[in-house]
Design a protein that fits this description.
By secondary structure, this protein is an alpha/beta fold. It has a single domain, classed as Metallo-dependent phosphatases (Purple Acid Phosphatase, chain A, domain 2). Helix content is 32%, strand content 23%. It has eight helices and 13 strands. A six-stranded mixed beta sheet has the order 4-3-2-11-12-13. Strands 1-7-8-9-10 form a five-stranded mixed beta sheet, covered by helices on one side. Helix 2 links the parallel strand 2 and strand 3. The longest helix has 21 residues. The relative contact order is 0.16.
Length: 329
């Protein structure tokens, strides 16, 4: 009941962003960028994340960071995070300068809900080499959620981090912050994770996902989120619930792509080629599927017909405007 209320409140306040079949969005979450120390979980996937961001930037995607981009519960001084991952923030700034960056805050970067905190840490940044302050992402306005609305069909995609209604990470986040900052942070160095987190607690994760599905069924909206670190792409009879996964898997990161009116789940991973060189490759895990396939406002027969029509009508165009050179990445 509480999850339903929180999701509905968040949906009602969400900023609307319009899209069409020529729009390109990539949804990534839960990078948990830290201070570059041994307890920084982002270190093991930083190169993959950087490569993926560069590719998305060059291919004209809008980057939607779906919460927990920074690990502010463990490292409250964001200056150390920015200095530890300068190259990452240089690419993010390019997205921002091109008005192609949407930042959603989650439970681990909930400080971004405070406009004065955002102004203090994102308007300018300090260059330690030149010893001067420079404009950074002045005017950044992190959102709790956004609603992507299709210009032609009015289909809506509700995008938020997903901690809403998860009591320890929502209304009691301050006490969770204390336990993370002064206890679990140090155990992370030895690979020990908080068992109460949905990331490691399977029953809690499934409960959260069931609550998501109930909200989707009641409100007839597609939901895209992160939080649980478990990637999700709905199967035939599932509710249209998508999860980006996370940016701190041991040897890969995952993302959702919305391009040419199609949505897919992809994975970026490190591989060794035939010559023994280490490479970063992108592969499609699920999809692509027409976004109309997940519009549960309409009868199933109508949805299937529209999806089939979409595939036939756009096949040639999608091939000509391929988002990536699949074999070359």
């Amino acid at each position: 009941m509480f999850t339903n209320k929180r999701l509905t409140e968040t949906y009602d306040k969400a900023r609307k962003v319009y899209f069409d079949d020529y729009s390109r969005f990539v949804f990534m979450s839960d990078a948990h960028r830290g201070d570059g120390s041994i307890s920084d979980e982002f270190l093991k996937s930083r190169n993959m994340f950087l490569h993926a961001l560069n590719e998305y930037y060059e291919n004209n995607y809008t980057f939607v960071e779906v919460g927990d981009g920074e690990e502010l519960l463990e490292y409250s001084d964001i200056r150390t995070i920015k200095h530890a991952h300068i190259a990452i923030y240089e690419v993010i700034k390019k997205f921002f300068d091109d008005k192609r960056y949407i930042k959603i805050f989650g439970n681990h970067d909930i400080y971004l809900d405070n406009p004065s905190y955002v102004r203090k840490h994102f308007d300018v940044t300090y260059d330690t080499y030149e010893e001067e302050y420079n404009d950074f992402m002045r005017g950044l306005k992190p959102e709790e959620a956004v609603v992507l609305k299709h210009r032609s069909t009015s289909q809506e995609l509700f995008v938020l981090h997903g901690h809403q209604g998860d009591a320890p990470n929502d209304q009691f986040w301050f006490f969770t912050m204390l336990s993370v900052k002064f206890f679990w942070r140090f155990l992370h160095r030895f690979g020990i994770r908080n068992p109460s987190s949905p990331v490691k607690n399977e029953s809690k994760r499934h409960k959260i996902e069931r609550n998501y599905s109930k909200w989707i069924e009641q409100h007839r909206r597609t939901l895209i989120c992160g939080h649980t670190h478990r990637f999700k792409f709905p199967k035939d009879n599932d509710m249209p619930y998508f999860n980006t996964g996370c940016g701190i898997y041991p040897a890969s990161i995952t993302a959702l792509e919305l391009t040419e009116g199609m949505i897919r789940l992809v994975r970026w991973k490190e591989v060794v080629n035939d010559d023994g060189f280490l490479q970063i490759k992108r592969e499609t895990m699920r999809g692509p599927e027409p976004i109309e396939s997940f519009d549960i406002r309409k009868p199933k027969e109508v949805v299937e017909y529209l999806a089939k029509l979409k595939i036939q009508r756009t096949k040639k165009g999608r091939e000509e405007r391929a988002a990536f050179r699949e074999e070359d990445m």
